UniProtKB/TrEMBL annotation:
<feature type="transmembrane region" description="Helical">
    <location>
        <begin position="366"/>
        <end position="387"/>
    </location>
</feature>
<dbReference type="Pfam" id="PF12704">
    <property type="entry name" value="MacB_PCD"/>
</dbReference>
<keyword id="KW-0472">Membrane</keyword>
<dbReference type="Pfam" id="PF02687">
    <property type="entry name" value="FtsX"/>
</dbReference>
<feature type="transmembrane region" description="Helical">
    <location>
        <begin position="824"/>
        <end position="845"/>
    </location>
</feature>
<dbReference type="InterPro" id="IPR003838">
    <property type="entry name" value="ABC3_permease_C"/>
</dbReference>
<dbReference type="GO" id="GO:0005886">
    <property type="term" value="C:plasma membrane"/>
</dbReference>
<feature type="domain" description="ABC3 transporter permease C-terminal">
    <location>
        <begin position="736"/>
        <end position="851"/>
    </location>
</feature>
<feature type="domain" description="ABC3 transporter permease C-terminal">
    <location>
        <begin position="275"/>
        <end position="395"/>
    </location>
</feature>
<feature type="transmembrane region" description="Helical">
    <location>
        <begin position="782"/>
        <end position="804"/>
    </location>
</feature>
<keyword id="KW-0812">Transmembrane</keyword>
<comment type="similarity">
    <text>Belongs to the ABC-4 integral membrane protein family.</text>
</comment>
<feature type="transmembrane region" description="Helical">
    <location>
        <begin position="323"/>
        <end position="346"/>
    </location>
</feature>
<dbReference type="InterPro" id="IPR050250">
    <property type="entry name" value="Macrolide_Exporter_MacB"/>
</dbReference>
<keyword id="KW-1003">Cell membrane</keyword>
<feature type="transmembrane region" description="Helical">
    <location>
        <begin position="736"/>
        <end position="757"/>
    </location>
</feature>
<feature type="transmembrane region" description="Helical">
    <location>
        <begin position="453"/>
        <end position="479"/>
    </location>
</feature>
Amino acid sequence: MTVFKTSMRNFFAHKGRMALSAIAVMLSVAFVCGTLVFSDTATSTFDRLFNSTSADVQVSPAGQNAEEQAEGDKPQRTLPAADLEKVAGIKGVKSVEGDVVDASVTVANSDNDNLGSTTGAPTIATNWDRAERKSVAIASGNAPRGPDQVMIDKDAADKHDVQLGDTIRTIAGPGSFTAKVVGIAEFKATNPGATVVYFDTATAQAKLLGKPDAYSTLMVTAEPGFTNELLKKNVAAELGGAGTYKVLTKAQVIEEGKNDVGGFLDVMKYAMLGFAGIAVLVGIFLIVNTFSMLVAQRTREIGLLRALGSSRKQINRSVLTEALLLGVTGSVLGVGAGIGIAIGLMKLMSSAGMNLSTADLTIKTTTPVIGVVLGVVVTVIAAYLPARRAAKVSPMAALRDAGTPGDRKAGAVRTVLGLLLIAGGAAGLWQASQADKAADGSMFLAGGVLLSLLGFIVFGPVLAGVVVRIISAGVLRVFGPVGRMAERNALRNPRRTGATASALMIGLALVACLSVVGSSMVASATDELDKSVGADFIVQSNMGKAIHPEAAQAMKDVPQLAHVSEVKILEADLKLPSGKKVGTDVNAASPTYADDLRVETVAGSLKAAYGTNAMSVDQNFAKKHGVKVGDSIEVSFKDGRTGTLKLAAITSSDVALDKGAKYLSVATAARYLPAAEMRTSEMITAKAKEGQADAAYAALKKDLKPYPQYEVRDQADYKQQLKDQVGQMLNLVNGLLALAIIVAVLGVVNTLALSVVERTREIGLMRAIGLSRRQLRRMIRLESVVIAIFGAVLGVGLGMAWGATAQQLLALEGLKVLDIPWPTIAWVFAGSALVGILAALFPAFRAGRMNVLNAIATE
């Protein structure tokens, strides 16, 4: 009980000094809890949506998955209307609705603006029937009646300012058509972001499927007393043809839907938890530093307690109890802040197009438990070493000294261990750079990153003595005596300086690494484009959709173009001369594609591969399977026939664009695939006639304006797109890393603030002999700047080594150019200096306000 009272007294006596550590714990716990609440809310939102839109039993054509339908690269499979009548008569069926759904459409307004989501959520066109009324209600207007009427969901209407009476155009597989908005529909459950338009059933069949007597799925409702499993069994038995129909219960449909979106949500969840983990790691340094300094400042107090009979175990327990109080306080605050972060993330995602309602906020019981346990455990573990060090101080030594004595043996062990870890990390990075396969090298890279990071954390205090002096020579000496005093203060406790700088080092190392990788990716892709792409223009969808035949024809009709090349991705099984079968994708392309994408051949001729009954494979495939030019390969096209093709070329695998592609001509593919099964183009490239590049570019932009799902890019546009995509990724990652850097900055603030308290008498004496307040504040700011720059030197050095090694692995995938983003590196150093100045504002202000006589009298 005495230990607890002592801990409580010390905790509240130093509550100001504990505040920043509590904030660090709070931020780390908040990001973890916020991530869990956000992901749980998103998952429950999708669950409710799937539950409200699913029938007891669903019947659909076999063989077509959701991804194929969303891409729209081939006509979707359908069920004949006769199947609806057959299912309606099955025992246990209360009712059945024929559903018409097309998730590959694009919907545009009269200005040709895309009304779909920009977050990857689909745009869905469907028929309005009783099944839809379970999940959607008409908010205004009326249901569509006839081919010239359409209803749109309220979220999309509000976002794109669509009003009753407006005309919208739907671009579907069979063709484009316009209709007037006569109704606005509102989801009863939250719509996570899809744009949905509704037509009457006859219009949907004719315009979306191109078949007046067909449905996409049958939605079956069970009679009371019939389980979904029993009804599924009856339906499957009646319909027969396991290869023709796919029959699922409501639970199975919901599970499929959860699997479709689960991967995306899991990636978001674990990526954000990863960044939260980095913030937790950085917070550990702050807590270790805080307790180390508090223990050092209470050395005499601890000595008195030991002299009065307190055991080492009691001293240890007292410090850990303070840590427990800190952990509980920070964690409880963190759980509350985490809910706020989750709401903020939901608002942010809603503004980007993924709607998540705060009314659906989901806080599982496990979330606050995880947050509190994480915060408490991390805080207690971080405080263990300072507590153990405090308990080891003998009473007499503590009474003689105002601080804990240095441990030379521990310093020697730290030096040896740090050097061993750094050597192990360097060896791992070296092995990764020499790997022949990216998969093998990635393991060495991960090991090298981990070992080198731990090595510099352990060895940081040893490096502080050298690096801080070098930095001081260039930064601090110009400030005269004040600069020299700042240098000595930074070197006074190398362990403290090293730990504070290491917290900054972690975040900055990751920023530098990703900047090198991102810059190298852009430089490599740009170099590859310059060498390999001969086309003047590239047309693709930003949403992963295939090129609509109308848009393809519009390109072919542009008179300023010399040629247009189409690329279709087909699935096939290859039977090799050895008898081995290999499932793979093949690229069916126009013969002119060989000019638009200049792929190096190591054997044969790529132009010959675009001839009749010919194909190419890449070098790695040829080597792995022992095939050579002139071999005959039996190709079985999915949903088509089997043909024997001659291997006319082997292309280089040392490329970034179309790496591993196997080429044949569209004409060859058409010999073995029915027209209904031939996929539309994934991409179209084009070459302008001599001297007409600008006119062709303008004509393409104009003629494809009615198709807002596609982008026309020349080579300059394509390079800028790559740069923008990588830049957006880096901005997102750096934004998440900012949490770790904020915690590290709090560490610098806390270290300086406690250091000012520790040096109160010394500051008073310096003020008494003539040091002005302005000089004192400058000294503390310079000390902070040199610590921040020290952390930047370690972080940037490590990050560049990691990034250069990662680039070597990417070179195996064709990204061969190493590009160091020197402007970014310069900004990191400038930002670190600014961080040092800002972190010192409060400690410097506090030191400047000290009463000189009271400071000198301080024990």
